[in-house]
């Protein structure tokens, strides 16, 4: 398909990616004790990722990262992807997530 000027793209979302940091620094090893890594963390919110994988090359094309994933976000993502090669044909393979417009 790529030789014919058609991009075959697999599109997927990762929702609710958490931005975390440790609440306290890791304590270094000292003689007789192991290194101690803090288990508590501070949550800094979440983001959503929409990414396209070009099936022919395995490359990610125009990923979108944002605070949410609505139909409008999905449409903008597809539009920005098509804008990378507007003269080509595009085939998008998507799952049945509720934000994909019919």
UniProtKB/TrEMBL annotation:
Residues 9-100 form the Tc1-like transposase DDE domain. InterPro entries: Tc1-like_DDE_dom (IPR038717). It comes from the Bacteria. This is Transposase. It comes from Laspinema palackyanum D2a.
